[in-house]
């Protein structure tokens, strides 16, 4: 009876030991799997950390590039503003010059018109004076042809014919009026401030 109980207890202990051994073996296997998984996760974590660091570096570099681009944009904007202001100043100056030139051109055109009127008037006066001079010369030639040559010298030895009237004391032509030098107008070309008369 005692032996039977001992044998049964031994059998139970053996079965229990085998069960514990199987459990320990299973747990060891699970522990190995967990260890391998942990190592794999650690490697993955390290890889991810390295990738994060790389991405952070790339992001920092991109941020620096963005700041550089912003600085360039600000610089270009300032240069563009300066150039725009300079161009606006040049445009305003050119417009002022154009307005001044237009004003001067209008004044020159008015002066040209006035000079043309004066030229026309002087041309008419010149033509009138030429006609008057030609008439005076024609009258002088006619008078010279009508008078004998000796009548020009107030001679007192002229023969007196019966019934003839004595000659005048000094038969001379009436003095010609003082005439200016004949004018010939030259048309104004180009410069309105110069007009030559000859």
From TrEMBL:
It comes from Betta splendens. This is Polyamine-modulated factor 1-binding protein 1-like. Keywords: Coiled coil. Residues 164-180 have a biased composition (Pro residues). InterPro entries: PMF1-bd (IPR037391). GO terms for biological process: spermatogenesis. Residues 31-72, 112-146 form a coiled coil. The keyword Coiled coil applies. Residues 149-198 are annotated as: Disordered. Residues 186-198 have a biased composition (Polar residues). The lineage of its organism: Eukaryota, Metazoa, Chordata, Craniata, Vertebrata.
């Amino acid at each position: 009876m005692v032996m039977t109980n001992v044998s049964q207890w031994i059998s139970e202990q053996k079965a229990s030991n085998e069960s514990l051994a199987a459990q320990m073996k299973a747990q060891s296997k699970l522990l190995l799997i967990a260890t391998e998984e942990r190592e794999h996760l650690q490697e993955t974590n390290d890889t991810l950390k390295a990738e994060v660091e790389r991405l952070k570096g790339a992001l920092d570099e991109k941020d620096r590039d963005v700041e550089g681009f912003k600085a360039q944009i600000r610089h270009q904007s300032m240069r563009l503003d300066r150039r725009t202001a300079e161009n606006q100043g040049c445009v305003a100056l050119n417009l002022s010059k154009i307005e001044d030139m237009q004003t001067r051109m209008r004044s020159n055109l008015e002066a040209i018109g006035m000079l043309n009127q004066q030229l026309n008037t002087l041309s008419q006066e010149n033509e009138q004076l030429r006609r008057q001079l030609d008439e005076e010369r024609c009258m002088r030639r006619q008078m010279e042809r009508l008078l004998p040559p000796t009548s020009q010298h107030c001679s007192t030895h002229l023969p007196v014919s019966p019934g003839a009237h004595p000659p005048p004391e000094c038969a001379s032509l009436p003095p010609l009026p003082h005439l200016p030098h004949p004018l010939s107008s030259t048309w104004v070309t180009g410069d309105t401030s110069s007009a030559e008369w000859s």
